[in-house]
Amino acid sequence: MIDFAIPAELAAERDRVRRFVIDKIVPYERDPRLTAHGPTDELRQELVELARAEKLLTVQAPEALGGRGLTHIEQAVIYEAAGWSTLGPVAMNCAAPDEGNMFLLSKVADPDQVQRYLVPVIAGHQRSVFAMTEPDGAGSDPAQLATAATFDGANFTINGRKWLITGANGAKTWIIMARLAANPHLPEGPTLFLADGDEPGIVIERTMNTMDRNYVAGHGVVRFDNLVLPREALLGEAGQALRYAQLRLAPARLTHCMRWLGAAERAQSIAVEHARTRTAFGKPIGEHEGVSFMLADNEIALHQCRLTIWHACWLMDNGEKARHESSIAKSFVSEELFKVADRCVQVLGGIGISDETVVEMIFRDMRAFRLYDGPTEVHKYAIGRKVLRG
Prior knowledge:
The protein is of the alpha+beta class. It has helices at 8-25, 41-53, 72-82, 88-92, 98-108, 111-122, 241-277, 289-317, 323-348, 359-369, 376-389; strands spanning 34-35, 38-39, 128-131, 148-151, 155-166, 173-180, 189-196, 202-208, 219-230, 234-235, 279-280, 283-284. Helix 7 (241-277) runs antiparallel to helix 10 and helix 9 (323-348) crosses helix 11 (376-389).
């Protein structure tokens, strides 16, 4: 059976989320605490409390940990509504990287780690980071991981350098990927570790200047300088980091798509209203074929993107890993939504490149989306390999 109907209760919650974002969150888009490096922690906490008051905080978390345990399809509907403002997911605590980190920890962390590192993130009291990407290659190709860990039977010692670590400055829960050296106690290889952000061996060198500004505290350059962690810091099994990263990345790719679909809808709505009211050559510009075709292309793309996301979500809700389909979704949706944002800028003309509307911010942030959780070319390479294998 194929059914594209959204249940009435879910539709009502979608509408409530969209109204919350429009009424309570959109006014913060002009707040000076939305800086070139993203929202400050002060702004984030203020937004989180607004969502908490509406019982919309971290709704995706497992029910046992205070959330609603949303299915992937339910997340798709709710996150799209939240994405109407890039601050919406921040307020509702379903933005990257926290959303993906919470998912990973809920699947892999032991009970003590859940209480120490996950529960405070779910509650909105602290942020988290996933420290994998490195200046010399580890990122899309984690096999190039250079950050090293040693183990003496009691403690791990980690040394290395990471960059493009989203939200590093001020985050309290750290998930660190390092290559565990051969030792007589545990398997070697890429391994995940948990740490508190105030450990003396974690050095935040700087916050990078990037074109996007939708993530709290931006993207940091981090150095691990003889970071010493106890045996209990091991997350999951030693040597299994790449498998755990895939566990995190497949749904995280989709949640990026869900949120940015909402932002693209916002840009389209602004472009449509402009096309209705702006006149040129004796009639509204939307009545000119050049403009109406761009709006039509946008509408087609939004529809196709939504269906692509829903299909991958449906597969995961039915027990499939859907790695292939999530790669298809990430590749297709990121490229198409960037085209949507670009056409919206074009429809708006001069004001499209100004901050008179949020379209220029959506456009800049959307460009980075084509790189988050794997650039389009890496996903196409993986898709092509699967196609050739039959």
